[in-house]
Amino acid sequence: MTDPVSPPPPPQPTPYAAPTGAVGPKTNTLAIIALVLGFVFPLGGIIVGHIALNQLKRTREAGHGLALAGTILGYVFTVFWIIFWIVYIVFIASYARSNFGPYGY
Question: Is the dihedral of CA 18, 19, 20, 26 positive or negative?
């Protein structure tokens, strides 16, 4: 004989639901700092990004993409700054030479 007041069965987890209490690997702090520095201070992004990549090889933490992005952004922005300053210096030198040459006043 069945009990007329039996409790309902527990809900089954869906294939898309994460198990409760599941936490992924910790994200490397230097990887996050490398990404921020890649935008703000590109040389710092390069240095910290390489340090973070070396740490990630040893510790197996998360954040490889962040460290790599910070390193790449650091290189890209550093190249842009170098090109900017070269163009700026050439422009100023050519302007000074054309306006203040031996016959300019």
Answer: negative
Please give the helix or strand (H or E) that residue 35 lies within, else none. helix 29-40
pTM beyond cutoff 0.70: no
Provide the residue ranges of all domains of the chain, joining segments of one domain with +. 29-98
d(CA 36, CA 26): 18
34-69 per-position pLDDT tens digit: 999 999 999 999 999 999 999 999 998 999 999 999
Q: Which of 6-10, 24-28, 44-48 has the lowest mean pLDDT?
A: 6-10
> How far is the CA of 6 from the CAs of 1, 2, 9, 11, 34, in angstroms?
12, 8, 9, 15, 57
Measured distance CA(81)–CA(12) in Å, rounded: 57
